């Protein structure tokens, strides 16, 4: 069954869902200039749900998108690579001041179509948004994580992205980066090289850098800390806290931790 466009808005204490019901077409691309048949609205507040249906108000789909987006200052949009059937450039043009996008691929084995869809989504938005979130998104060399990381972003969140290279991250231009990955994608020696490059002056805009991965084994943190001249601030059970300093005399905290019995993390943030 074809999925209908859904818009979510969240305010303090309230949550709205707008489902724009469209005519069924044989085409693979949704026409943003057609009129919805009707608009279904769900409103959640204080554990109560209210559902109603309103007419299309003689507004086209793109007008509904513009109208609803005006109610939220922190505008973001979620895409699923395998369910993208919009004219993306037209959609981008009609959503003002977009702050962030989230892109997800749920397929275990993405194909060429999914890769092209991911590019089709990301490229029009990258130059304008501040925050990007990727979940298992298939990418290629002609448009890779490096291309995304070189854009000046406030936040870049990567969840289980393949072929992640921490040495490439050293050349990125983001202020905050959060990476969640698998144990076999983690190299503490590469993270050590990443921090050594920061000490030498790379990543001048980086303020926060967090890496999380699943492991039941408590990591040996020595390969990570080797040669960093890290000063230990404190240690509590499986959590240790260090200070490092770069060649511009900027201090940063590194916190390493193994928690919940199955998760390890390395957290980097500039010192106050």
Automatic annotation (TrEMBL):
Source species: Caenorhabditis nigoni
Name of the gene encoding the protein in the UniProt record: Cnig_chr_X.g26509
Domain of life according to the entry: Eukaryota
Protein known as: Sdz-33 F-box domain-containing protein
InterPro entries, per the entry: F-box_Sdz-33, Zygotic_Embryogenesis-Asso
Sdz-33 F-box domain location: 145-209
């Amino acid at each position: 069954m074809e999925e209908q466009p859904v818009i979510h808005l969240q305010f303090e204490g309230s949550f709205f869902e707008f489902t724009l019901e469209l005519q069924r077409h044989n085409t693979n691309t949704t026409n943003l200039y057609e009129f919805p048949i009707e608009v279904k609205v769900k409103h959640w507040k204080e554990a109560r749900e209210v559902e109603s249906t309103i007419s299309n108000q003689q507004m086209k789909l793109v007008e509904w998108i513009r109208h609803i987006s005006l109610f939220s200052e922190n505008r973001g949009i979620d895409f699923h690579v395998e369910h993208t059937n919009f004219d993306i450039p037209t959609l981008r043009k009609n959503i003002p001041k977009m702050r962030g996008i989230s892109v997800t691929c749920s397929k275990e084995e993405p194909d060429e179509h999914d890769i092209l869809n991911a590019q089709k989504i990301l490229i029009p938005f990258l130059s304008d948004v501040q925050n990007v979130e990727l979940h298992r998104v298939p990418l290629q060399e002609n448009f890779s994580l490096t291309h995304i990381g070189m854009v000046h972003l406030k936040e870049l969140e990567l969840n289980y992205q393949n072929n992640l290279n921490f040495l490439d991250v050293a050349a990125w231009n983001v202020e905050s980066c959060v990476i969640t990955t698998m144990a076999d994608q983690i190299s503490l020696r590469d993270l050590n090289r990443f921090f050594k490059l920061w000490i030498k002056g790379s990543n001048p805009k980086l303020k926060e850098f967090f890496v999380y991965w699943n492991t039941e084994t408590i990591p040996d943190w020595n390969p990570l800390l080797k040669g960093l001249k890290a000063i230990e601030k404190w240690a509590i059970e499986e959590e240790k806290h260090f200070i490092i300093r770069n060649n511009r005399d900027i201090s940063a905290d590194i916190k390493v931790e193994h928690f919940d019995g199955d998760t390890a993390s390395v957290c980097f943030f500039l010192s106050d």
